[in-house]
């Protein structure tokens, strides 16, 4: 419901901060490193560009964390479909 309720086109404010990330490929440790270095939502806003899973050993953990943040902070965390 959360993903379906958001408009197709969104306008994001880069302030106070906006991190654009992509190609996580199931690398859970890399995803955690991004959050540790750049900040966790909602203090930092995120736009993930895709390629969430497929190559890493922890694809399930990766997509679950991304979806959990999306559910918890729908106005600060964006996943392109």
Automatic annotation (TrEMBL):
Any GO molecular function: protein serine/threonine phosphatase activity
Taxonomy, superkingdom: Eukaryota
Domain Calcineurin-like phosphoesterase: start-end pairs: 18-81
Matching Gene3D superfamilies: 3.60.21.10
Keywords: Hydrolase, Manganese, Metal-binding, Protein phosphatase
Catalyzed chemical reaction(s): O-phospho-L-threonyl-[protein] + H2O = L-threonyl-[protein] + phosphate; O-phospho-L-seryl-[protein] + H2O = L-seryl-[protein] + phosphate
Pfam families recorded: Metallophos (PF00149)
Keyword Hydrolase listed: yes
PANTHER family: SERINE/THREONINE PROTEIN PHOSPHATASE, SERINE_THREONINE-PROTEIN PHOSPHATASE
Protein name: protein-serine/threonine phosphatase
Organism in which the protein naturally occurs: Piromyces finnis
């Amino acid at each position: 419901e959360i993903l379906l309720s958001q408009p197709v086109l969104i306008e994001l404010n880069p302030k106070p901060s906006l991190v654009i990330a992509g190609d996580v490929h199931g690398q859970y440790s890399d995803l955690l490193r991004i959050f540790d270095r750049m900040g966790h939502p909602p203090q930092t806003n995120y736009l993930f560009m895709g390629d969430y899973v497929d190559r890493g050993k922890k694809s399930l953990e990766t997509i679950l964390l991304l979806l959990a943040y999306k559910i918890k902070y729908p106005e600060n965390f964006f996943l392109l479909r």
